[in-house]
Design a protein that fits this description.
By secondary structure, the protein is of the alpha+beta class. The protein has helices spanning 2-35, 41-45, 49-68, 75-112, 116-147, 150-154, 156-161, 163-173, 175-190, 232-235, 262-274, 307-328, 354-365, 371-374, and strands at 198-201, 204-211, 215-220, 225-229, 239-240, 248-256, 279-291, 296-304, 347-348, 351-352. Strand 3 (215-220) and strand 4 form a beta hairpin. The longest helix is centred in the N-terminal third of the chain and has 38 residues, at 75-112. It is elongated and about 120 Å long. It starts with a helix and ends with a helix.
Length: 375
């Protein structure tokens, strides 16, 4: 009977005590979160409830297992399993706490600064810092787990002795990965591109959606995702429309007839922009920039506060101006001029007439050429 009650008391007591402590801790965090609305720290810490309870339960079971002397024939295996669970849960809890602290710091910074560019820069840096912290904690946790096995502890000295050679080999083998990793740090802290920036890469226009240590994701206007290595942005030129101020200037081109009413088109452009909410009112203009034998090129210029609004203005101006020309001034649209072709007097349907051919042949037999024959 004692052999049955002792395991139940040890396991049941550890689980019950873990649930009670976890509930009490969550209650305190909930009260702190309700009292301090200025910071999300306490609410974010509640996300670590599960790893926190795992740490408590594994620690209690690991400590009580030696005292209870349960399942002596499996003592080593159970003890090692509890140790591995404790290490993994501790790493999980550390990552959750670090994420809560970093997210709280970013939230406070975003509230204190109204500059969207600076906020996006800090957000990019925070994301990469969290990935580095998670990777570091994970590597340390895995290494600690491996060191719990005697075979790995015995091989530790030889591994450390050959660490230099292995490091050189790994560096050569993972050269591209390491270059991408360093490029990720350069992007994050060099302020080259940030999450939320509007960029143009390889002719594709989109918004930076995610930045990691090795790759970057751009969400295009048609909701496609383009994934590319971060080293691309440190080795090739690209357009960043969000760099500096987000204000932009857009242009629209039309090819119209030479008789198009340019002054009236300029007035119509002003009316269109005044009715368009996306126009910021800074500037506009309409000029003839080029001509061809059949048409002339007209360019409209307008401004907006960001890339999204400039796209809206461009499509609106292009559509309404073409509709207005087709309705009010159809003669201003491009036309293809056609007319009957006039043949030379000595040709019929593109061929020389027979009498012209005979006259040219007689002249050649007399020793000179006809002017038409030489032409």
């Amino acid at each position: 009977m004692e052999n049955l009650l002792r395991p139940l008391i040890v396991v049941g007591g550890s689980v019950a005590l873990t649930l009670v402590i976890g509930w009490a801790t969550d209650l305190l965090l909930r009260k702190a979160d309700s009292r301090h609305h200025e910071t999300p720290l306490w609410g974010l810490l509640r996300r670590g409830r599960i790893p926190y309870q795992l740490v408590l339960c594994a620690a209690m079971l690991r400590g009580a297992y030696d005292e209870a002397q349960l399942l002596e024939q499996h003592r080593v295996g159970i003890g090692r399993t509890l140790t591995l669970v404790l290490i993994g849960a501790t790493a999980w809890l550390v990552i959750r706490i670090a994420a809560a602290i970093v997210e709280t710091t970013y939230t406070r910074y975003a509230r204190a600064h109204r500059d969207p560019a600076r906020v996006r820069r800090v957000r990019t840096q925070v994301s990469l810092i969290m990935r580095v912290v998670s990777a570091t904690v994970g590597v340390v946790a895995v290494a600690t787990m491996l060191l719990t096995f005697p075979a790995f502890r015995a091989a530790g000295a030889s591994l450390l002795a050959s660490a230099g050679i292995l490091g050189i080999v790994a560096g050569v083998a993972a050269q591209s990965t390491l270059s991408n990793m360093f490029a990720g740090f350069q992007i994050a802290f060099g302020d080259m591109v940030r999450i939320g920036d509007t960029v143009v890469v390889d002719g594709e226009w989109g918004t930076v959606e995610e930045i990691t240590l090795t790759f970057l994701t751009v969400r295009t206007w048609d909701e496609r995702r383009i994934t590319m290595p971060v080293s691309y942005f440190t080795s090739k030129p690209f357009e960043n429309w969000s760099r500096g101020t987000p204000q932009m200037t857009g242009i629209v081109f039309w090819h119209v007839d030479h008789t198009a009413p340019v002054d009236m088109m300029r007035d119509k452009l002003r009316d269109i922009l005044r009715e368009c909410p996306a126009w910021d009112g800074r500037a506009y203009g309409l000029d003839v920039t080029d001509t061809t034998p059949n048409t002339m090129q007209v360019r409209a210029l307008m401004t907006a506060k960001d890339a999204d609004d400039i796209w809206t203005i461009r499509v609106t101006v292009r559509e309404q101006m073409v509709r207005w020309l087709a309705t009010e001034h159809p003669y201003a649209l491009p036309r293809v001029n056609t007319a009957d072709a006039y043949l030379p007097p000595h040709r019929t349907n593109g061929r020389p007439r027979r009498d012209d051919v005979a006259r040219d042949g007689a002249a050649a037999s007399r020793g000179y050429e006809s002017p038409r024959a030489g032409g």
